[in-house]
Amino acid sequence: MAYEYLPYGRQDISSTDIEAVLAVLQSEFLTQGPAVPAFEQAVTNYCGATHGVAANSATSALHLACLALGVGPGERVWTSPITFVASANCARYCGAQVDFIDIDPRTYNISAAALAEKLARAEPAGQLPHTLIAVHLCGQPCDMKAIATLAQRYRFRVIEDASHAIGARYLGEPVGNCRYSDITVFSFHPVKIITTGEGGLATTNQAALARRMALLRSHGITRESAEMDHPPDGPWYYQQIGLGFNYRMTDIQAALGVSQMERLEEFLANRRRLARRYDQLLGELPVTLPYQPPFGESAYHLYPILIDAATAGIGRGEVFESLQRRGIGVNVHYIPVHTQPYYRSLGFRDGQFPNAERYYAGAISLPLHPGLTEIQQDRIVDALRRALQENACGSR
Ligand SMILES: *Cc1c(COP(=O)(O)O)cnc(C)c1O
Asked: Which of 34, 139, 243, 358 is placed for a possible disulfide with 164 were both Cys, Cβ 3.0 to 4.6 Å?
């Protein structure tokens, strides 16, 4: 029998979203028009930050954030090994050295205790980081207060990679308000919480950082006479005052973003309802469910479960393949970044971040997105139960 394939994540596009995009296609500006600032405003209003800089991806926004903070050759940038490679690559683009902090085995985010220990060792060696990139994995906020305290004590800058976490809350406030960081970056790839097709956005409360990111997003070119080294030659005049890129978001994308922002609360409510339902339905199974620390409210971009081969009597690989055979589009988030060949070539090795590697050995992300129905979710849970039982009965 052919099963309907259930992907782990996917976009939810309404007729209102489509109309918003069509309106831009029929308007004067496809890019560099009014939709981009409107989207920036919508996100910063929602988060409670003062500035927003949209970009053509979160990867670009992370690169801009690193450059604006002065990450460069000779600097050190630390991040989590359990993240998408872009969280580390952005520092490499700037010529910086990357290192990792092991994760907390309960939250899967960087461990504030491991960070404190590594900082205490780095200080006497003169190897303190310039910037920390804290990743809110699965939409679950990091312990930002603890991180901000360490940032003050050791004088490093903080970027929040909130690619998974628009709509998440930390101590009752929205992620992205930058209360405990310099810059927060969101992603709008179609599997994330809201989408612009491709896209990202950096929020900050520091005008100088926002200006720097906006400048580098568009070639390092300014039209502000105050930023030029001589008065403009005429009304056509611009100056390139730094080496930037074309990292601009189009108005087509931004209009979709504005429309998706209107639907954010609906998306979050669905994700949280489905996550709570997984919590209930999976409670009896020999798997570890996501943990919610008291300080955070997850946006539930992902719902990873851990299969411990010793308790389950079956390995992650077998469960994964059994679910895929039943049409359940499970995935693994993430392969520890330090074990990627590119990072190995920089000197990283297996065994350096044991909690990250243990997490990776057991992790499976179950499908979770706002359009997932409870009937589909029941089918996923049933397939997982069977996968686990198959082994217990020794039938395979
Ligand atoms: C998706 C993702 C990115 C990159 O986002 P893009 O918009 O695809 O460039 C960066 N970091 C994390 C944690 C992500 O999940």
From this structure: 139
Give the span between the Cα atoms of 204 and 211, in whole angstroms: 10
| Tokens (6 digits) for 46 | 């929602």
* C-beta of 59 in contact with ligand 1 (< 6 A): yes
Spatial CA neighbour of 88 closest among 305, 359, 356, 369: 356
CA–centroid distance, 356 to ligand 1, in Å, is: 19
252/30 Cα distance (integer angstroms) = 6
pLDDT in tens, 232-281: 999 999 999 999 999 999 999 999 999 999 999 999 999 999 999 999 99
**On the CB side of 182, how many CA atoms lie within 13 Å of its CA?**
24
pLDDT digits (tens, 9 = 90+) for 140-189: 999 999 999 999 999 999 999 999 999 999 999 999 999 999 999 999 99
Q: Return the structure tokens found at 364.
A: 């499976």
The residue among 15, 35, 40 whose CA lies nearest residue 25 is 35
DSSP 103: B
pLDDT of residue 393: 54
- Euclidean distance between CA atoms 230 and 51, whole angstroms: 28
Q: Determine phi and psi for 239, rounding to 5 degrees.
A: -130, 140
Pocket test for ligand 1, best of 82, 87, 140 (most atoms within 8 A of CB): 87
Q: Which CATH class is domain 264-395?
A: alpha beta
pTM tops 0.90 = yes
d(C-alpha 315, C-alpha 80), whole Å: 25
Query: How do the domains of the chain map onto residue ranges?
Result: 6-261, 264-395
Fold match flag (6-261 vs 264-395): no
pLDDT digits (tens, 9 = 90+) for 48-103: 999 999 999 999 999 999 999 999 999 999 999 999 999 999 999 999 999 999 99
Cβ neighbour number for residue 279 with a 10 Å cutoff: 13
6-261 has which fold?
Aspartate Aminotransferase; domain 2 (3.40.640)
Nearest CA-CA partner of 188 in 202, 178, 175: 202
Q: How far is CA 155 from CA 20, 129, 136, 147, in A?
A: 44, 9, 21, 11
Atom of ligand 1 nearest to the CA of 62: 10
Closest to 187 in 3D by CA, of 205, 175, 179, 173: 175
* 333 within ligand 1 shell (Cβ under 6 A): no
